[in-house]
Amino acid sequence: FIKTYSEEIHYGGKFRGILLVLRDVTNEVEVDRIKNELVSTISHELRTPLSSIYGFTELMIQRDLPANRQKKYLAAVHSETERLSLLINDFLDLQRMEANHQEYTFEPFDLIPMIKDLKQLHSLSSSAHDIQILSDVPVQIIQGDSKKIRQLFGNLINNAIKYSPAGGPIEIRLEEHHDRMTVAITDHGIGIPASAMSELFQKFYRVDNSDTRKIGGTGLGLSICREIARAHDGEIHVESIEGQGSTFTVELPLNPPPPL
Ligand code: ADP
């Protein structure tokens, strides 16, 4: 995008020429476009839960409802409030990461107990899934921010559970390749259509079909995962077959501390 400015130059009463200034404003236009898109996405995402909270509370105020109906509406208000708070937290997290304002504390830690702990945590949930950890090595020391890495794997395991039928098996495979390690999380759930693959890590992107609409989510989890992986000089990839399952693979540099 080019902005132009022109002015005729007269000197001694005579036309002497034209001053022409061309300015490349591509960057400004792009920043404006992204800002507008963000504002409209956020207002849409906030408006949906807010309007259902408004609707349910209005019904409760205006009508004399039996206790069981009141409880049902309150439960809906509660879950929409939870969704809003999750959305705002995730969104602020992501903003900080993208603006490079997120502080990371790098330290060496063992990934295996962390993954085992996440498995334990998810095994306690109501629709327990069979989560298997397969690792070639007993200890896997990496250099990183353990809280953020936990958030990254927590998100991926959570998705594997969310998008698979109750009780479906999930495998977490840890492997070492030269100076990098990979963690692959495989589920046998609903999978991802090929047409969605290129947009999957975009902010707010959710595959739109009857399954995912029922499951719910903010569409921010994978963007957060990608930011965390990048901050660790790592990468995240996905392979999937719709209707069969997905594998999300995180690749991180192995950086063991020097021996004592
Ligand atoms: P959400 O909060 O919607 O789960 P994510 O950013 O974590 O947001 O994921 C984006 C979208 O990618 C999801 O809405 C879903 O459509 C798809 N997705 C993510 N993980 C999986 C998975 N393991 N199996 C199938 N689809 C998935």
From TrEMBL:
It comes from the Bacteria. It is found in: Cell membrane. Residues 41-256 form the Histidine kinase domain. This is histidine kinase. It comes from Exiguobacterium antarcticum. The lineage of its organism: Bacteria, Bacillati, Bacillota, Bacilli, Bacillales. The chain holds residues 553 to 812 of 812 of the full protein.
